[in-house]
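Why show two proteins at once? Because comparison is the fastest way to build intuition. When a single record is shown, students tend to memorize it. When two are placed side by side, the eye starts asking what differs. So, the first record is below.
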Amino acid sequence: MSTEMKVNADKETIVAQLLEKINASPFLLVIDYTGVSVPEFTKLRADLAATGARCTVAKNSFMVKAIAEAGLPDISASLKGQTAYVTGDKDICSAAKVVNAFAKTTKKGAYRVGILDGAELAPDQIQTLGELPSREILLATLLGTINGAGAALARVIKAYVDKQGESQAS
């Protein structure tokens, strides 16, 4: 096997692995990791892993090819320089929250672009997703709103019944 064929086979293997990660994730976050130290990057990866997300570094040209093969939007204009890619099992908000905290403490790791369920996201949209409360808090808030509306309706019905009872007693 010639060296050139081996290199092409290696490239195809890397692109296939990237494609597998992209297809297994409902989101892709692209961050700039210029100037990030090894200990900082290790901590970022560990924090992301705790949320079910992974951070990958790959050649931008390989990622462009994998994204195209996945049928996702062309974000190649944002894939310049030192770029890291965050994918995960399900929750983009948790992953974005970790990257937001990382960027706040290190002043590094700015968002470049993202993709969520096949739609391109601007950096400010990803930032906003990371600022949302946790899923549990959102569900508790929703439940409180539903319970509040039900309780208000029950009070109105009770007041009506009480008023009807008073008018019949007179």
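Second record. Ask yourself what differs from the first in the token line.
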Amino acid sequence: MALVLVILFFGLRFEGASTTNQVAWHPDRAGLHFGHYGMAYCPNAFEAAGFQPTPPDPGLTFELAVRAEALKRDRFQILVMLHGGRDSEQLLIGQWRSSLIVMHGNDYSGRRGLKRLVMKNALPAGVERLVTVTSDAGGTRIFMDGQPTARTTSLTLAIPNREAAVTLVAGNSVYARHSWDGDLFGLAIYRQALTPQTVAKHYDQWKRTRDFSMAVSANPEMLYLFHDRQGPKAFNRMGDTRYLIIPTGVEILKKEILRPPWENERWGRSNWKDMSLNFLGFIPLGFFLGALRSDFGRAGARRNLLLCIGLCFMLSLGIELAQAWIPSRSSQMLDLGLNTLGGASGVALQRLHWHRREKNRRALSI
């Protein structure tokens, strides 16, 4: 029972997450402050288009006024994303260390070679920036404080093809595993590519007033000025009901149950460490379960072996299913397999110990 309780503790604990949404209205000016773990979202940013492919957008622009905090975690963070049901088609603007990354899909580590646009040293801690990402058939550009800083012709951004309504998330992902720390002072999404002249004009106005109302003149699709300064919603200033919701608790907007191993986000040192712990953590449980059943003798050895492995499997399965509802945790098929293999190894070690002990006992009796 002690082993089971230890396994449940480590399997169901919140790793760096919180049940409370750590997003609050900025105390000094119009904006939202994203703490260590939080999110805001609009569940119906764009309507569903069914399963039919939609034509490319004639142009798309994101404009954000942000100030990143000092990075305390060496992982991928998402400033804003659009998710239409498929991870492979999601559109996001993210941060890795101080770099700004724009891409479609979930190749956060970049190891799959998906097209992306990266601007290094774009978001130093504590520095307020006006970030503009604009895209059309000619490619995608990043502007920092009104100046062009990065460009690619191989990536064109578009609203994700969507099986359901497209969700807009600020400060996190739909899985609540990519929280961002910092201040968001304004957010606008345009269904057009802004010209460099317009981008420069917006920055000049922003620099003078620090008021995101300068975006109104370019007729954005969605505009959040954060003038509300209170309440659970930030209103879309373009006049419709696409509010940016600030929930009291962090919500997992898309449940992920038993994710296959080939969809793993990263295969780094921390990943191999987690794999080792998942395997080794169940060996003691398998060993002691085998010890509890060892008195049944050889006749039921195979049945007892399968029973012990089955118990390890059921315990791991319960933990993995529960993790789908725990922010910052991920339900993975690989973890289930490693836990079960670890339990089976523990049972095998116990059986080997039992046979060795019986052999020694018989030798002494002679």
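One difference worth noting in the second protein: The CA atoms of residues 107 and 187 lie 24 Å apart.
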